[in-house]
């Protein structure tokens, strides 16, 4: 860790809180100082999610710490259970209980008998060496292993979308595009959008889905568990580009043994044609090679870059990811020292990254943002997506306009 | 919504038994959304004082979320607002070595003064910032100050503000005192032209320096040249006390004075220190307040109230209102200051000993209002009770203002809320 001039990588605890905050019919209580929850809530709103889960904090004082007292948590759970009557109360430690080793699992087990109608579910992605993505991964896995009920497959085919969480930039828009495409291509409706648009009941019934779509690697362990428990097949990947999206749909078709609705595809292709007829030629006819530098979540970076290079003929430039656990030789993890020294206002070419990186590089066009932290408020719910057919059109148009603007 | 049990308030203390923030308990058990932490307040303040850099020391959470208020790592006047995040190893063994390197790097980047904001975790593990500063300061050009800002030591955020302001005294230097000069600690620029004390001081040729969030580092550093500190905010009181100790700068509190006698006494003391005769400069304001009090008298007598607005300094205010016949039942305490004891005693002498609490969930408070049945609230009330309980809100407008005019304004607002225009003033003076 050490000295930071820019946002540090969020902790696993933050990943857990952000992932759980969107689950309806649940409450979340954090055992720790209340300031943290206040800022978590403010950040979620900026990321585009007014928390559906009721977010509580117990607060903590010196006596609680010195004596190992947990009465605040006990009282808070009693109050929440009585007042809100949620199906589930998620219980999280903040940094102080994590450090002094408060055993939330044991406490929840002890308290559970007093609340037969409310499930107490402790989360402990709290270690000081656990970062955002692992927090999200452990959260999705714990949800998948604890809440789903033993249900039969739904009469009409359905799907779960695993990994759509608030920490991913444009999660709303991308999810809406996948839902639209699944309906258009297969007539499938979502059973559970885990976790950005879901409820406790949706998660309980997610075993009834016919396929699990995993749109980030953090969701894979949860999907594998569901595959073991319910036999639900999975497709992993983020659909970017026209061809990329079609290939992704083909994988799904193969697994579902169900043909893609070709009239939907023809309609999508027809809609995209004016852009796709121009874009590759536009980029190849520029005097200077159009290069794309891109940094963010490894799956997002890889997906967008593949589309840009293989379908539109852009040239990859600097590429990096935001998690050391996801780094590869081709896609290294860059800490702020690396990106801030490399990506300056003298950097040439297209740049897609977090709002913070774009601002540092003197790029005024925040439409090129693909990652958090953001500079602004992502509150408009109908932004154009990056994924899917419409995402392909959006990206191509955006890049063309950016070329006109800066090159 | 379930009605809470009759014994739900037995966990709260009476004001007379309160010794510190520790005795202020939550009104209801679970915070939603709760209060800001001292780190947030200190960071916001650091960001507004031109020339002051900051280093937030803590976990990823503290560092990440501090960017909600300190948005830029580089300020317009060369300030640096950076963060030091403890790793798993430093959580156990301390962060002294890494912190030293970080401060050297900030110093080399050319910063003038750095405020170290020590958050919950480094405070808990006992990282000795004073020792680090003592060891490192001689090697650095940048002046270092630190504040302890753990949220577990309090409920609200004010300690982040007053500790930062108090710490500024640590880098002030003794200077020659300018006889006819005064620091106005906590002055709101908007109110400066409307308050007779300030116009009188200006007319008498007193050099005035407002010190507050909008001041520059240089203005703070030169503050010891003033002949007096006039304190207009509770956040500034600790700075005034420290400057009295370190630089022998006398101070007069005005932020906690609401009654005619208390205000007159404070004004007289200011005149005495500055060797000024204010003549009848305050007569108009005094008479207006006197009339407001006379007209309010019947309406305020026996009027029970809560004070729940988080921006209030509720204990001295309640002490004054009790002299007008009002009966405090419950006070939200954002921060308990040592000076509050005298006002608590004054309330007790009047026969009042309200409950004290920290509010954290306005929806859950409905039962408290229904149980104690206040006739009035200084602050907003739950939506379901708006038609039943008279109240005034927007009370943050009183912050930084003072004197007869502030009290008149407040009485006027209370009387308006009760449906009876009280003061001669038909328009707001603030």
Major sheet: arrangement of strands of chain A = 4-3-5-6
**Assembly state of the chains shown:** heterodimer
Biggest interface: A-B, 54 and 51 residues
Helix content percent band of chain A: 40-55%
- Neighbour order of strands in the largest sheet of chain B: 1-12-11-10-13-14
Quick one: CATH class of the largest domain in chain B? Answer: Alpha Beta
**Count the strands of chain A?**
15
Low-confidence stretches of chain A: none
The total of helices of chain B stands at 16
Structurally, how many domains make up the residues of chain B?
3
CATH topology of the largest domain in chain A, by name, is: Rossmann fold
Architecture of the largest domain in chain B, CATH level 2?
3-Layer(aba) Sandwich
Described by the principal axes of the CA atoms, the overall outline of chain B is globular
Overall pLDDT score of chain B? 92
- List unreliable stretches of 5+ residues of chain B: 421-430
Please indicate the percent range of residues of chain A in DSSP E strands (runs of 2 or more): 15-25%
Radius of gyration of chain B: 23 Å
Query: What series of H and E elements makes up the topology of chain B?
Result: EHEHEHHEHHEHEHEHEHEHHEHEHEHEEH
